[in-house]
Amino acid sequence: MTEVFLLGTFHFSHSKKEIFTNEARHELGILNQKLMGFSPDVVAIEYPYHQQANVDAGYEKFSLADLSDFEKMKTINLGKIKTFGRKGIQRYKNEVVQVGFRLAKSLDLEKVYAIDDDSFYAHVPVIGRRIFIGRAIRHVRNMLAWPNNLPKDIKAAYDVHMKHLNEEKVGILEQLDYMNTDEWSYHNHVIYFERNKLGAETAFAGSMNFGSWYTRNLRIFAHIQELCQHYNRVFVLIGAGHLHLLREFVNVDSDMRLVSLSDINKAGGEQNG
After folding, report:
1. How far apart are CA 239 and CA 5, in angstroms?
2. Is the pTM of this model over 0.90?
């Protein structure tokens, strides 16, 4: 049976949190030690699978010594990358580099695997994409009271969730601990699920959008299943919004055993005790 450790994360590039500081480096170092305790024999990251060649080039260029050079990380990049039809570059202010590449290099792994799928969005014709997005925006505008219309328990969780995400003083480790709880994962999924009813009376814009979200996660999971055919301990670094579905998928696969951050924290506490 293959052990699959899903680590949900916030996206560093979208965050107000400072990554290039001694405090952040210290926290990320602690996290890396925890992850090394899992002893994965493969690391998977949230970059599109069709960008594997660019990921390989970025990983080859990356060095653990880079993590001590804040100026280099602010000014140098690890090469090009293309996601959801948009050309970009691999920056150091990214969880892929700060967590995924760091862990893989620390374990002397030859490569990391890109497992995301962006084909639904990338292959929709531009005109069709605009029509779809336009319809979705109109429906959202008709529901400006959202998320105030959410059930009270979900609304309360949403408020805490947003406050926590926007709190710059919350440390990286605390943030990750919070986002990897079952409670956060469930409530975050409910927030995603609320989109499904948008436009039910007309073009089903919400269902189209949410259906593509399920498809994307199923395809991510297909890549995880493929890795499980060749490795025994699979570490997956993924946006925390994917956790609820991916955990569900892992739990129904009899050839996999789910490992969470709380399991790693508990194991580390027992060793230290």
Report:
1. 13
2. no
